[in-house]
Amino acid sequence: MNDDDHTLMRDGDDGAGGFEEAVLEDELRQAAAVLDPVPEALRQLAVEAYALHDLDARIAELTFDSLLHALPVRGATDVPRMLTFQAGELTVDVEVSGDGLMGQVMPPQPARIEVLSGPGAGARLTADDLGRFTADAPPTGPFALRLRTGGHVVVTEWLRA
Amino acid sequence: MSTGTIPSAAYDDMPYTRGELVDRADVGALVQSAVDGDASAWKALVEGLSPLVWSVVRAHRLSDADGHEVYQTVWFRFAQHLGRIREPDKAGSWLASTARHECLKTLRSLSRLTVTDDPQLLDRVSEDGSPEQSLLDSEEAAAQSERIRRLWQEFERLGDRCRQLLRVLMASPPPSYQEVSAALGVAVGSIGPLRQRCLRRLRARLDARGTS
Prior knowledge:
The structure holds two protein chains of two kinds. Chain A is 19% helix and 37% strand. Chain A has helices at 18-35, 40-48, 66-69, and strands spanning 58-65, 81-87, 90-97, 100-106, 111-116, 123-127, 132-135, 142-149, 152-156, 159-160. Chain A starts with 17 loop residues before the first helix and ends with a strand. In chain A, 28% of the residues are buried. The longest helix of chain B has 22 residues, at 188-209. By secondary structure, chain B is mainly alpha-helical. Chain B has one domain (21-117, 136-209). Chain B has helices at 8-13, 20-24, 27-35, 39-59, 64-81, 91-110, 139-156, 160-169, 177-184, 188-209. The radius of gyration of chain B is 19 Å and the shape is globular. The chains are: A alpha+beta, B mainly alpha. At the A-B interface, helix 1, helix 2 and strand 10 of A face helix 2, helix 4, helix 5, helix 6 and helix 7 of B.
């Protein structure tokens, strides 16, 4: 990987006949713009996502996701999704199932938690003195948890429920 | 030697030709401005790169609902990581790669359940409400629309590999090969030859239909 990588010319390796291909690719580009454009509502959401930019918050990275790391259970239909996020010494375990969301902050400590589903405000939860928290409704779609604990703000990496 | 009228201004006004370099060159600067609080820089990033993210989603043939959620997740995560991205000028590759991984995760979870139907893109051409529909007002535009529809149909009939590659390549502005590589997990060096082969295959299909 060097700095020139991203300046790789696309036309250079086409050789003879590249022009006709470029024209066809351009036609495809036009077709995509007409038949399969970015839905306007989605584009607008991406613009609004700027509000999620928060340099003061620490990011708790996803370190375990049962979707990727666990073997599927034969015959089981509603297997809870297990997630682990980590920011330094702070760990957040989360379990999402049809019944809702359960979680555990480690080391155990109280926290105010917001379940974000987008740029707007989210549902509020509280983790008890042992760091446990629950929500009756499971998140659907993109979600992140914003935790306030011990003067810190930690936000889990965005992912899909 | 140049005095008075300087042509460079005219070049500046030109849209990207085939050079994504013009458009992509300032991605790093836009990221930095957005980090510093410039909302218009963020908006410019969305304008310039959301077609790429969308293309990656579509290339993986997710259902509409899944695709929309992946698209959102990618942008939410990008906003979250803004300012921590190690190579801001490669934000396009970051987005493409993140989109790819979310798509693969979705496909993986779906494979345990049922397969959803592919979205029928061809039906959308008759939907009302898009600004492009006004094009259909003239006969010439109708012919153009028919041509586009046929092109899309043949594109959709290509093999998975070609369809996927071309769907990403047709993002606007055109993605760099590095972004395509991040979007599909293929080596940069193989993209040029593959692209050539896939476009030739598509051309052959169109020719066979007598629509060249």
